[in-house]
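[worker-b] picked up task from shared queue
[worker-b] task type: protein-ligand structure
[worker-b] ligand name resolved to zinc ion; SMILES cross-checked against name lookup, match
[worker-b] sequence length check passed
[worker-b] input payload:
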Amino acid sequence: MELIPKDIPVEFLQILPEGIKLVSRHGHPYLVMDRVEDARGNSLMDDAVHIHGEPSVKLKVKVGHTEGYIFVDAYWGSHAKLYNFIPDFSEGKTVEAFSPVNGSSLMVPWKCPIDGCDETHGIELRLPGGQNTIIVCGKLGCPGHHINVAHVAEGVSESLSNINYFGEGEDELFSAI
Ligand SMILES: [Zn+2]
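[worker-b] inference finished, payload out:
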């Protein structure tokens, strides 16, 4: 999996919200989720499973009749994931995600902006303070995601949300642990 550098809006870097950090890799800047939380403020970061050298975001998920944990790449716009179970995609790729800390639902209503995706549920990750949120499409493999940051112009939020490192490719599907 190779990370391809993308332009990050300067306006966003000036107001970089808590929970997102800027890292440099091979001389290129990337945004990385540093701390995302469930609705109660519990951290979802997992220090035991690293992807691209950074702690991953750990989610408890149900897919069809199967359930387990997924570990999501904290690099903004990357869709790399690891699974600790074999997900059953026979009824579709929509997941239900929960906090691994207390089992509370992370699902919120949303309209996926990606052409050809009709998903109506997203996974909400909160940044510290509870004001700023990241919503990821509830359909695994869909690159749809959006960041809602207070006091940032909608255009900046849009261009940021459109950063996808791996396009609409397939998930990396294998068992992690
Ligand atoms: Zn989608």
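[worker-b] attaching auto-annotations
[worker-b] The radius of gyration is 15 Å.
[worker-b] releasing lock
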